[in-house]
């Protein structure tokens, strides 16, 4: 462990020195660059010679880092030489070629020759640098292939089944020798302690005391102090919760780790940790740190004793039942690391190592199965209740649990068949994925809380940006949401890269499934390989693409679009276009995973264009009309429109049809082509105001001024009628001895017209009845004419 840390520190110093020297590379003399390149070539030859023999995983990592560092140096040297060659070319071009028939000065000729010779030397060195970079990349690829091959061999190796007698016979046969190795390990350590220790081991005692103080009192005090500071000074409840969770993880990991390091260092200084046991001491520190991290992350996520500080949407009962399992997982991680280190330290036999791996895999699988059973029971109990707050888990959680159950069954079957390494790898990846997932959840929540709290229009930073730079508040809100999304995406990508790295899997699951894919070669049709593996891969890729599309649309509709300046219809248009584009990209990605390129998709669409033109003409017309509606937006969601004899509110606009809710709460589905090619009355396109129109007539001898005042009073008495624009009362004409009035008033929206008109009419009826004013239409007169009467009009 110490050698690894020193090696990593040396490589970090080398990389840091390269980064520092990079800006000055253009000013480095050519002789110095050539010397650096020579050392790089020597380093690459040394790496190449080291790869000729059998190299373990740790040595391969070190050789890979050396090759990468040499490649970076070669690239830097090549870049510096290219800059110098560019300067020389400019100087040579400034001198120009020798003119034929013209005798030039000897110093010009000598300078041109010297520059040309210097350029040739630099060009040769630059080509050497390029070749060295290529060789370094080849060495890195060779190391990666070797690591992948070793990983695949380790995963696919089969031993005797634990159910077979051979397994136990081999273990019992090697047991006496392993017992001797354990005794020799203990005896050599005790002998070294006896020869090195003198007097009272006060260093060890002091280390134990300090370790206990750091582990318990300091950890409790630091946790309480951090929570107190956050309560008093952190802005916003969300930021306080996230910061408290991360602080608990940091303190819960660092304090036990420092305590273990202090105790081990005290044992070393007192001579109680001999060189023979040094590896076990390092393993204790590593196991303590990892198990403490596991317990701290799970504790910060569950918050069993402080539910008000809990970030995740977990009820108290779930936190109480799951928390003991996380402690068992932390203890199992501690024991796994110590057992592996002990096998390595004593040089245990192959049978003992296989037995240890079998035990570790079995314990992991039992713990994972117990965790799944507990979650299943909790889901069953919640589903039996009618309380909406205790509803069942989401479909995504159910799918994840189902996948984990399948993996547990596969790992258990592999364990029984003798594929111990594969079973252990699968179980440890599941456990590590749970720990990593909890960590990523906490970090993404913290990143989202900090980004959206710092970059908001109401924060101090937002107010400063608005006042100093004139940035709109919505732009600041959008930047905070986008920054949160980018940072969370980076965290997820890093987590995916770390998923299998602790177990030596350079290729990860891709390497495992790559080997399994060789079992079914399939057939090839038109240059496309069709096999169960490719079909399954296409389905998986399509599922992942649609899941990412759903997640992206959820973020777009719930987080980003609500903080923009777009109205509801604009957000709907952006959401629809983004949804269809994302789905199209998901399908193209799935086809690409099957080996069907974009050019073949375009050829297929060209072949189908004739059929689309004839058979799907109406659908295509509606689709294009929908795109026009979304782009031009003559009709928006929420508009009150009249299509033919039907009038209602626009509720949804898709690329094929538009849904209109009528007054009787029924839904009218109108094809988009009808809205584009025919007349549509949009009552709210120009503005939301609605107009009330009232027409009536009174006798000719009625006081028109009095009627006008009554109408204005009726409009003013209704709160729904607006004062601006003011109501208007007009005399429309004099007909058949009556005065015809035409009155107008305005309300806030079109949907309030009918009720306001009814209220005003009722008021007018009461007022006219009280004043004795006859209101109505022109009276009709019925005359009875005797039979035989001449009805022909006569001239006067």
UniProtKB/TrEMBL annotation:
<dbReference type="Pfam" id="PF00924">
    <property type="entry name" value="MS_channel_2nd"/>
</dbReference>
<dbReference type="Pfam" id="PF12607">
    <property type="entry name" value="DUF3772"/>
</dbReference>
<feature type="transmembrane region" description="Helical">
    <location>
        <begin position="284"/>
        <end position="303"/>
    </location>
</feature>
<dbReference type="InterPro" id="IPR052702">
    <property type="entry name" value="MscS-like_channel"/>
</dbReference>
<keyword id="KW-1003">Cell membrane</keyword>
<keyword id="KW-1133">Transmembrane helix</keyword>
<keyword id="KW-0732">Signal</keyword>
<keyword id="KW-0472">Membrane</keyword>
<feature type="transmembrane region" description="Helical">
    <location>
        <begin position="200"/>
        <end position="218"/>
    </location>
</feature>
<feature type="transmembrane region" description="Helical">
    <location>
        <begin position="354"/>
        <end position="375"/>
    </location>
</feature>
<feature type="transmembrane region" description="Helical">
    <location>
        <begin position="535"/>
        <end position="556"/>
    </location>
</feature>
<feature type="transmembrane region" description="Helical">
    <location>
        <begin position="576"/>
        <end position="594"/>
    </location>
</feature>
<feature type="domain" description="DUF3772">
    <location>
        <begin position="127"/>
        <end position="186"/>
    </location>
</feature>
<dbReference type="InterPro" id="IPR022249">
    <property type="entry name" value="DUF3772"/>
</dbReference>
<feature type="transmembrane region" description="Helical">
    <location>
        <begin position="601"/>
        <end position="619"/>
    </location>
</feature>
<feature type="transmembrane region" description="Helical">
    <location>
        <begin position="324"/>
        <end position="342"/>
    </location>
</feature>
<feature type="transmembrane region" description="Helical">
    <location>
        <begin position="396"/>
        <end position="422"/>
    </location>
</feature>
<keyword id="KW-0812">Transmembrane</keyword>
<dbReference type="InterPro" id="IPR023408">
    <property type="entry name" value="MscS_beta-dom_sf"/>
</dbReference>
<feature type="signal peptide">
    <location>
        <begin position="1"/>
        <end position="26"/>
    </location>
</feature>
<feature type="transmembrane region" description="Helical">
    <location>
        <begin position="428"/>
        <end position="447"/>
    </location>
</feature>
<dbReference type="InterPro" id="IPR006685">
    <property type="entry name" value="MscS_channel_2nd"/>
</dbReference>
<protein>
    <recommendedName>
        <fullName>Mechanosensitive ion channel family protein</fullName>
    </recommendedName>
</protein>
<dbReference type="InterPro" id="IPR011066">
    <property type="entry name" value="MscS_channel_C_sf"/>
</dbReference>
<comment type="similarity">
    <text>Belongs to the MscS (TC 1.A.23) family.</text>
</comment>
<dbReference type="InterPro" id="IPR010920">
    <property type="entry name" value="LSM_dom_sf"/>
</dbReference>
<feature type="domain" description="Mechanosensitive ion channel MscS">
    <location>
        <begin position="619"/>
        <end position="683"/>
    </location>
</feature>
<feature type="transmembrane region" description="Helical">
    <location>
        <begin position="245"/>
        <end position="264"/>
    </location>
</feature>
<dbReference type="InterPro" id="IPR011014">
    <property type="entry name" value="MscS_channel_TM-2"/>
</dbReference>
């Amino acid at each position: 462990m110490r050698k690894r840390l020193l090696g990593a520190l040396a490589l970090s110093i080398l990389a840091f020195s390269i980064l520092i020297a990079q800006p000055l590379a253009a000013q480095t003399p050519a002789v110095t660059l050539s010397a650096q390149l020579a050392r790089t070539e020597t380093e690459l030859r040394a790496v190449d010679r080291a790869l000729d023999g059998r190299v373990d995983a740790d040595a391969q990592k070190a050789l890979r880092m050396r090759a990468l560092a040499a490649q970076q140096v070669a690239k830097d040297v090549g870049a510096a030489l290219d800059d110098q060659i560019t300067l020389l070319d400019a100087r040579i071009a400034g001198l120009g070629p020798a003119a034929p028939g013209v005798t030039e000065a000897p110093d010009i000729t000598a300078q041109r020759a010297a520059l040309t010779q210097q350029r040739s030397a630099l060009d040769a060195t630059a080509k050497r640098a390029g070749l060295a970079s290529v060789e370094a990349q080849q060495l890195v690829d060779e190391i990666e292939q070797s690591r992948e091959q070793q990983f695949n061999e380790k995963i696919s190796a089969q031993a005797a089944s634990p159910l077979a007698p051979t397994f136990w016979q081999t273990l019992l046969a090697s047991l006496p020798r392993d017992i001797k190795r354990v005794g020799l390990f203990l005896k050599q350590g005790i002998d070294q302690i006896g020869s090195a220790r003198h007097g009272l081991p006060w260093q060890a005692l002091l280390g134990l005391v300090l370790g206990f103080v750091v582990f318990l009192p300091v950890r409790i005090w630091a946790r309480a102090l951090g929570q107190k500071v956050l309560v008093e000074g952190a802005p916003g409840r969300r930021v306080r919760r996230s910061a408290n969770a991360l602080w608990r993880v940091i303190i819960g990991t660092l304090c036990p780790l420092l305590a273990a390091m202090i105790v081990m260092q005290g044992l070393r200084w007192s001579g109680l940790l001999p060189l023979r046991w040094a590896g076990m001491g390092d393993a204790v520190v590593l196991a303590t740190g990892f198990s403490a991290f596991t317990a701290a992350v799970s504790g910060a996520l569950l918050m069993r004793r402080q539910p008000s500080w809990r970030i995740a949407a977990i009820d108290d009962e779930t936190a109480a039942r799951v928390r003991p399992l996380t402690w068992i997982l932390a203890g199992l991680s501690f024991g796994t690391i110590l057992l592996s280190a002990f096998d390595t330290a004593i040089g245990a036999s192959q049978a003992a190592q296989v037995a240890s791996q079998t035990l570790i895999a079995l314990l992991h699988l039992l713990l994972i199965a117990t965790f799944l059973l507990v979650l299943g029971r909790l889901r069953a109990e919640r589903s039996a209740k009618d309380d909406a707050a205790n509803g069942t888990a989401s479909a995504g959680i159910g799918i994840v649990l189902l996948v984990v159950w399948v993996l547990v069954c596969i790992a258990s079957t592999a364990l029984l068949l003798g594929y111990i390494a594969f079973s252990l790898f699968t179980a440890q990846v599941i456990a590590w994925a749970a720990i990593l997932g909890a960590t990523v959840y906490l970090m993404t929540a913290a990143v989202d809380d900090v980004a959206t709290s710092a970059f908001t229009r109401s924060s101090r930073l937002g107010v400063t940006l608005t006042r100093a730079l004139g940035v709109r508040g919505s732009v600041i809100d959008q930047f905070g949401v986008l920054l949160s999304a980018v940072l969370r995406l980076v965290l997820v990508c890093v987590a995916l890269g770390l998923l299998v790295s602790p177990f030596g899997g350079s290729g990860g699951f891709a390497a495992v499934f790559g080997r399994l894919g060789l079992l079914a070669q399939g057939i090839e049709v038109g240059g496309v390989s069709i096999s169960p593996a490719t079909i399954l891969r296409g389905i998986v890729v399509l599922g992942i693409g649609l899941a990412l599309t759903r997640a992206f649309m959820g973020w777009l509709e719930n987080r980003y679009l609500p903080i923009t300046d777009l109205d509801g219809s604009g957000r709907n248009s952006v959401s629809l276009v983004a949804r269809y584009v994302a789905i199209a990209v998901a399908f193209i990605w799935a086809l690409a995973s099957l080996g069907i390129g974009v050019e073949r998709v375009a050829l297929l669409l060209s072949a189908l264009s004739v059929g689309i033109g004839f058979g799907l003409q109406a659908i295509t017309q509606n689709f294009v009309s929908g795109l026009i509606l979304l782009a031009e937006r003559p009709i928006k969601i929420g508009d009150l429109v009249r299509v033919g004899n039907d009038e209602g509110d626009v509720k949804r606009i898709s690329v094929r049809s538009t849904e209109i809710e009528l007054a009787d709460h029924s839904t009218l589905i109108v094809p988009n082509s009808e809205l584009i090619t025919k007349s549509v009355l949009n009552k709210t396109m120009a503005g939301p105001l609605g107009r009330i129109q009232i027409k009536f007539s009174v006798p000719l001898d009625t006081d028109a001024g009095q009627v006008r005042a009554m109408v204005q009073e009726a409009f003013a008495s209704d709160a729904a009628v607006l004062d601006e624009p003011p109501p208007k009362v007009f005399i429309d004409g004099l007909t058949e001895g009556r005065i015809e009035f035409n009155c107008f008033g305005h309300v806030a929206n079109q949907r309030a017209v009918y009720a306001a008109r009814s209220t005003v009419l009722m008021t007018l009826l009461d007022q006219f009845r009280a004043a004795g004013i006859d209101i109505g239409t022109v009276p009709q007169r019925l005359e009875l004419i005797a039979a035989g009467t001449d009805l022909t009009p006569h001239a006067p």
